[in-house]
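Please decode residue identities from the backbone states below.
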């Protein structure tokens, strides 16, 4: 069971089960949608329904629509309802990871002979999932610079089933024009799917911009407390193109058959986290903007990637399609040694995979989150650092970075500064041999087409 907005009632409506009128402001919805006092005791916060099955009074007749917890639970429904309302979607399913959300979309909507177009800067796990699991189904993966929609127009064929957009992207913070990508995809009867993890519905609502499917790793900003792995698949009303009309039914059937649903406790935690999403996102954005500007002024930094900077190539698109620029800032240092020194040198900012929590986290993608794309066209420079700004006091964050830079002074003298600088993916250099345990063969790959075999032991985190 997933959540579907009742026909012709979206966002500012009530469901049959809901005695409150659903409010329209996003902060109010974050608190109240899918969060009503429990009927039996009056508990203001819903309990965790930790059960695998539900009593029936007569065979086949459920009391509240729940029969068996693989297909649905009250906590999961609550979470799906708020996600649907925030995203302006028609359909929502809360699953057990962002990667499960992706797998559900790929399994439900791709078949042998289909092509999927993906951006050149993408979460490494998405790439690994496609290459390891769907290439052997006979799906062709085309990597395209989607920041340039002319390249998308040239790459779409009549076999394109999905155009997959990640914006802002992980780790390079590329910005893709969702409206234009939707227009091009629909003209070819292809689905536009957007991984909107870095934005959350507070900053960006792809369905309103024409997307058919949105996925989130709710592990990140949506839950926001680094204590849950979760994901969500959302879909629009299917009116954009003939292929889109089938999306909700295909997703529903797949999800009910496979059982990827998030557990009651994780759903409950995520629902709680969402209550502060607007407040948290505002602070993440504020801190990230200050840190991005501060980094841009540092001589040790070759390039800063943050869509809130006027120097970012996607700044004007981001201003149009987002209401804030997000909480992640990436940058390239002058030397690899400095990058390694910096990520190990912070104290308040924790060296860890993942992002989007209330605490600031620092990541060296080439050796951590994006190890699975080492040695292929998507590899990340070893001078590249991803910083997820938490909601701590900005002075403490800056003091920690300042101290780490001071400690890295020696490392900066270790190698000459590289001369070139460009976008994150364009400056991506082959990762060092020590870091690259991922095995990849591009020998048979046609241009723009991936024939990679990513080793399962080169697992990426987030
Ligand atoms: C943009 C993006 N999409 C999807 C995922 C996968 O999410 P999860 O780790 O919850 O499976 C991640 C994880 O980092 C991500 O950054």
């Amino acid at each position: 069971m997933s959540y579907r907005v009742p026909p012709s009632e979206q966002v500012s409506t009530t469901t049959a089960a809901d005695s409150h009128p659903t409010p329209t402001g996003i902060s109010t919805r974050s608190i109240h949608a899918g969060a009503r006092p429990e009927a039996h005791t009056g508990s203001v916060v819903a309990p965790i329904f930790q059960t695998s099955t539900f009593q029936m009074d007569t065979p086949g007749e459920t009391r509240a629509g729940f029969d068996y917890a693989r297909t649905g639970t009250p906590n999961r429904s609550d979470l799906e309802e708020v996600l649907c309302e925030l995203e302006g979607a028609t359909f929502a399913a809360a699953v057990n990871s962002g990667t499960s959300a992706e797998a559900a979309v790929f399994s439900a909507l791709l078949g042998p002979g289909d092509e999927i177009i993906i951006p050149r800067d993408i979460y490494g796990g998405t790439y690994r999932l496609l290459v390891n699991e769907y290439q052997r189904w006979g799906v062709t993966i085309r990597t395209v610079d989607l920041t340039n929609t002319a390249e998308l127009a040239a790459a779409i064929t009549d076999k394109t089933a999905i155009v997959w957009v990640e914006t802002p992207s992980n780790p390079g913070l590329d910005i893709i024009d969702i409206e234009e990508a939707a227009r091009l995809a629909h003209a070819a009867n292809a689905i536009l799917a957007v991984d909107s993890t870095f934005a959350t519905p507070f900053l960006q609502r792809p369905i309103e911009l024409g997307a058919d499917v949105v996925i989130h790793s709710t592990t990140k900003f949506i839950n926001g407390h680094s204590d849950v792995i979760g994901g969500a698949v959302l879909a629009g009303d299917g009116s954009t193109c003939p292929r889109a009309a089938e999306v909700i039914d295909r997703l529903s059937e797949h999800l009910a058959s496979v059982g990827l649903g998030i557990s009651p406790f994780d759903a409950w935690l995520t629902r709680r986290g969402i209550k502060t999403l607007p407040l948290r996102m505002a602070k993440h954005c504020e801190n990230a903007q200050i840190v991005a500007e501060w980094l841009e002024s540092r001589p040790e930094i070759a390039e800063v990637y943050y869509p809130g900077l006027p120097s970012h190539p996607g700044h004007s698109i981001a201003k149009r399609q987002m209401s804030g620029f997000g909480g992640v800032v990436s940058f390239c240092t002058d030397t690899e040694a400095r990058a390694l020194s910096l990520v190990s040198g912070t104290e308040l900012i924790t060296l860890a995979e993942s992002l989007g929590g209330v605490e600031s986290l620092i990541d060296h993608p080439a050796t951590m989150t994006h190890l699975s794309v080492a040695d292929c066209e998507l590899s990340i420079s070893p001078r590249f650092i991803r910083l997820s700004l938490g909601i701590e006091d900005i002075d403490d964050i800056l003091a920690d970075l300042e101290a780490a830079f001071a400690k890295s002074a020696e490392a900066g003298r270790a190698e000459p500064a590289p001369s070139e600088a460009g976008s994150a993916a364009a400056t991506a250099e082959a990762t060092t041999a020590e870091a690259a345990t991922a095995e990849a063969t591009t020998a048979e790959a046609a241009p723009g087409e991936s024939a990679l075999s990513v080793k399962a032991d080169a697992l990426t985190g987030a």
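Observation: The first helix runs from residue 26 to 32.
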